[in-house]
Amino acid sequence: MDTKALRPRTRIQTEKRELILEAALEVFSAHGFRGSTIDQIAEAAGMSKPNLLYYFRRKEEIHETLMQRLLDTWLAPLKELDDIGDPLTELRSYIRRKLEMARDFPRESRLFANEILQGAPRIKPMLEGELKTLVDEKAEVIKGWMRAGKIVKTDPWHLIFSIWATTQHYADFDVQVRAVLGPDRGGDGRFEDAARFLEQLFVDGLKPPCTTPRVQPS
Amino acid sequence: MDTKALRPRTRIQTEKRELILEAALEVFSAHGFRGSTIDQIAEAAGMSKPNLLYYFRRKEEIHETLMQRLLDTWLAPLKELDDIGDPLTELRSYIRRKLEMARDFPRESRLFANEILQGAPRIKPMLEGELKTLVDEKAEVIKGWMRAGKIVKTDPWHLIFSIWATTQHYADFDVQVRAVLGPDRGGDGRFEDAARFLEQLFVDGLKPPCTTPRVQPS
DNA sequence: CAAATTTTTGACCGATTGGACAAACGTTAG
DNA sequence: CTAACGTTTGTCCAATCGGTCAAAAATTTG
Hints:
Chain A is built from 11 helices and no strands.
């Protein structure tokens, strides 16, 4: 009748589960699901494999739990994108929030990227449901801005994709970015450079400022 | 004295190696290196595991070969970025070439993404050497355009990153793109939409055309 | 054709994997 | 203190992994 599932969580259970999830995030994000072993996660969490399996019965259960939590955090910035306030300011701060997440939660970004790269076998329904709904909704907001002439007319879906791509790139392709830019000389100058660039890209584009070409030569 | 390595390739060897590499690309790009098994690759190539291991002695040898070939193809578009011709046209066609590659060689893109995501354990030297040199060189070209006032002044490295990120996104995050945009209604309208958007993004930015804000109110 | 060589296969191996289990150990409430 | 419950561990298992090997089969060469 009353199964284990119905019983409330113990203090130790809550703590240890959290410990395991933290360790699993570290391992999964670095090696992918199949590339990670329970032993690795257990060691990172400072416990034995059977002990870990006492808290999560299957490897997939850890991954699932991690994934569910991730999606909320991950979509939060987009949810905040609001109709009130200046559109360009709103987009600018959305880009900045996403970039901050790439800086502060690179493991989460990579965990997500790993899942998508392999065809999202475990979260495809969520993408087609929850995610699509949210994006469609926000695309409508952006369309409104375009109709009002507040920003240039373009495809809002691809705009969102390009914001995702450019910001998450700094987390997912971190190794490549570091390799190309060379050793970074302290501080988060790297981050500020990226922020400045992306702001300019999305707001100004590459075309030279209107001044020069506007002045007709004689 | 004369080892196997010195002997020239047989006809069958050439053919079968090609067959294996094609199968391995399929499997590796879908499941990553550790997520793929020799058995899977062998089956995809239509041969037995020991037979496959007759042509490639180790799993890593297949991956290495694949990776070496990939890098040439992958960097070709950037190498073509040339100092001659109009800068904006040059950048536009670079973006288009990269987008075409994401469409025509998505497996290659994912294979590369997988490798980078996991910290590029097998190609880090190549990133810090060959790739960095090439990017630095092209960044200098772009800087020249900026100094000449042909395009707006910005960080050329981050510009290149953002082109990589946005274009490869359509291959690497294909599942997500499809999920959000819904079932695509035939043709490569999807591709053309992305191409149009990226061109607009990189060339025009989001700011509304200069007309309106230029007119100082009162 | 026959010998030499290349290709293919089935059987096998040790290592690693995810996971089961019962026994030992801790903790806590009555 | 003790009984009940929660936690931890060592041992074990079957499946799968990358890879070997010798022998059979196919092919090439003279």
